[in-house]
Amino acid sequence: MGRRALAGLLCVVLLALATGCGIPDRTDVQVDGSGPAVSAGASSSGRGEPPTRTSSGADRETFVRNFLAAAAGEPERAYARVKQFIAREDRNRLAEKQGSEVAINVVRLTEKPVITENVNGLLTVRVPVQQVGLLRANGVLGPPVVTDTEYQFSLRGSAEPGQESTQDGGYYVTDPPSVLLLDTLSLRLYYQIRTVYFWNSDATRLVADQRYLPLAVPNERLVSEAVKWLIAGPSDWLRQGVSGLPDRTALINNAVKTDGRWEVNLDLPGDDRRKLEKLGIQLAWSLSDLDGPLQLTTRNQSRVTIDDLAAHRLANPVYPLTEAPQRFTVYDGAIHPLVFEAEPIGPVPIRVEDNHTIVSAALRRTVEDKTLAALVTTAPGGRHRLVAGSGAAPVQVMTPGTQTFAALGRPVWLRPLGGAQPYGLVVADGRLYRFDDRARMVQVPVGTTGQVSAVAAALDGHRIALIVGGRLYLSTASLDGGVVSLGPVRQVATTLTDLSAVDWAQENTLAVAGSTNRSAVYEVGVDGVLQAGLVTDVGARVTHLAVYPGNPTYVLPTLMMMYEANGVAYRYRSPSAETIRGEQVLDVPSPPAGGRAGSPTAPFFLF
Fold first, then answer.
1. pLDDT of residue 39 exceeding 80
2. pLDDT value at position 3?
């Protein structure tokens, strides 16, 4: 089947899946408040510069919110915007940096700012925060470099000393913080989130990376900005699993649009046409909202022309997905399909004789129409064992592992390419292991201390989410030389505590189970900026979580998620969840006379 025909078929399936569904209602977890007030010069969509100092008038709460938004926008003017808010006599307390050195501390307000009036007429402001990250001039939000949990400063009236009779309204900040601050609400209001793509180490798969582009940047600069992001390379935590462009690659002037065609001129060391073609695929996906032609030309006049960016994306899908996801569950120790309206149903892809004593499972399709199967089964003495296999469905050979464990988590596959050896990851007795399709397990070091309790792999097979010591981390898996190793870890800031389960919800977001004084499931961005409630009161600790990850190759109209809590399986249906009932499990035998029917557990997706 051709790719265009396949895309049409997927659209038909997706329309069927969309019946009766809506977009999830997700509420950002923030303190009360409307966020920064948009200045008069900004459009209704928030495009443009953040509010000026005087836009808040005499409203002190709005002034503080606007001060926490002032750094937003193009980085070269960040200090000038913030210093508008600072009293002239205190502006030298904020030491300016230039160019690539400009960095903004992104914080999440954990309480509303507390404003108190002193006897001398000054207002003291206390801002409790969680450090989220450091936003660089290149749009990368890296991990935070400071640990402050609150900031304090003062406000005075707007009249300059000696000019009290020329009051112009509003306030000035005195004793300001020594760093640029930007709260997460303002980041989301004044920036657009962009995804750029880097090839993995053998240039066989694209891996997503996130950037922030100020809304004040004109649309005609988008192509140039995307090229610069690719030239600058991936985020630090991704570097071990991906490849950047050759050293000394440079953009010659800005990209221009001529007669409807974007033209990009590059200085590309080696002048390798194959690398130029690979860059064309990266750009097509990194400019995912642009259509039409694009031409790449090097200083030595090598040239690659993309006739239509949309068609180029279709011809080079970012993920090898060919079929709709199917739901399964474990029922009385065996895998069974789940039946829901307008969703595809498929047979269990393992043999009947292997489908028993199962606790949890991971099933994945490969590009060669094979199935990868990993089963956690019971073993003597109340222990658990991994059983794995691969091949055409139903998988004919399932091999039990030689090791048993007191606790064995839900396994995940790192989707292989071509005929490469398939590998997966699983948590066993608080440690992370890799395994293959013969259930051979080898421990994988994790770059932080603590008990590992959960692992999840993104669709690209390289980005890994971990829960270690009850906290959320990201890392990158490298499969070079057939050995699975993890790069440095990055902790992701979230106000959730006691984390228990994680899976990938979209390309750059995770579904995370934890506590906010009650058990809950949230969607959390890979950098911690987004934090949105999915199910805010589960009622019990979530012990199992499975999501079909949203992606640009196979778009779904709503989040598909299932989880287990207190031995009960649930299906997420925005804005809440419903119990998965026994009658929704296919091919379940009737219980023996006097016996009790089983319950669905450990639900998961095959895709």
1. no
2. 39
Residue 119 confidence class, pLDDT cut points 50, 70, 90 = confident
CA angle 227, 228, 229 (to 5 degrees): 90
Rounded distance between C-alpha atoms, residue 415 and residue 364, angstroms: 8
155 by DSSP, 3-state: which? strand
pTM above 0.85, yes or no: yes
List the one residue out of 387, 381, 425, 432 whose CA is nearest residue 406: 381
Q: What does 310-353 look like in DSSP terms, one character per residue?
A: HHHHHHS-SS---S--EEEEEETTEEEEB--TT------SB-GG
**Which residues pair with residue 532 across a beta bridge?**
28, 523
Position 129 scores a pLDDT of: 98
Least confident of 108-112, 115-119, 251-255, 511-515: 115-119
**551 CB contacts (<8 Å, ≥6 apart)?**
318, 319, 321, 459, 506, 507
Give long-range contacts, CB 8 A cutoff, 24+ apart: 376-385.
376/408, 376/409, 376/410, 376/411, 376/426, 378/333, 379/404, 380/404, 382/406, 384/359, 384/408
Cβ(244)–Cβ(278) below 8 Å: no
Give the pLDDT score at 2.
Answer: 40
Length of the chain: 607
DSSP state of 381: G
In 3D, which of 420, 340, 433, 349 has the Cα closest to residue 386? 433
User: For the sheet containing 334-337, what is the strand order?
Assistant: 334-337, 326-331, 600-606
CA–CA distance, 338 with 268 (Å, rounded to integer)? 52
Residue 229 in contact with residue 238, Cβ under 8 Å? no
Q: Give the separation between CA 291 and CA 533, rounded to whole angstroms.
A: 34
CA distances from 51 to 56, 81, 85, 173, 293 (A): 8, 9, 10, 15, 37
Task: Give the count of alpha carbons within 13 A of 63, CB side only.
Answer: 25
- What does DSSP say about strands 303-306 and 576-579: parallel, antiparallel, or unpaired? unpaired
* Rounded CA separation 388/393 (Å): 13
Identify the sign of the CA torsion 129, 133, 136, 141: negative
Cβ atoms of 208 and 507 within 8 Å: the answer is: yes
Confidence check: pLDDT of 589 > 50: yes
CA atoms within 13 A on the CB side of 194: 28
Predicted local distance difference test score (pLDDT) of residue 270: 80
Q: In b/e form, how buried is each residue of 122-131, taking b as 16+ CB within 10 angstroms?
A: ebebebbbbb
The 10s digit of each residue's pLDDT in 307-355 is 999 999 999 999 988 788 999 999 999 999 999 998 999 999 999 999 9
DSSP symbols for 431-481: EEEEEETT--EEE---SS-S-EEEEEE-TTSSEEEEEETTEEEEEEEE-GG
